[in-house]
Amino acid sequence: MGRYIADLSYLFCRSARTNVKKIFGWYFPIFHKKTLLHCKNLFRNYSRYLIDYCRFTNLNKRSILDQITYYEGKQNLELALQMNKGLLLLTAHLGNWELGGIFFGSYGIKTNVLTLPDENPEIGNIRSWYREIFNVKTITIDKSPFSSIEMVKALSNNELIAMLIDRYDEKTDGIIVDFFKKPTQFPRGPLILSRLTGAPIVVAFVVKEKNTYTGVIKGPFIVTHEKEEYETMKNIVNILEEYINMYPDQWYNFTQV
Hints:
alpha/beta
């Protein structure tokens, strides 16, 4: 049923379909001859993601953790947590990023998800409610200084802050790094937070493998000086590229063109 709905969405959601094709053309020229197939698979995978997103609300902690059958880099997470400085987790709209937050929350790591105000407040409230079920708190970024204070406080309490960094619309306070050979702006915020608080940065993903999920944790990175920000972000972006290349039809980027 999910695949049927995904195929209908691919057929009728012209704007999203056009954007996905453009993105594949820009970022994955190697797939030129199979662009149509990869685009269709992306819609189908996104449908599975939404189904799992709803299904997990009815599963208990053990059942949810069983969804991730393999975790690459658990030692990286342990190393970062041993520093007792909190943790900054950076990820992309790749695979099931919400499952990653549930994973950490279910393991007793106090988890905060950083998000921009949703265009539809009702959808934003649903997402917040969903995360709260699994002890994941939402921190909404706005122009007020209070969100920054809340982040610093969370890190000082040795909590985890997770954020998506592959869509950054702000034109100020960013850092430009080549992303698939295209100059792209990424948020400087997590680098500044690491430098000011000593919190380590890890890059993490939860991707679909047939009927189960695989988790990946890379890092940690620590920024001790402003001069280190560019190279640190470059290393982070290299990891994003590596895993997006491995799972291009799980990179849900429908609007950024």
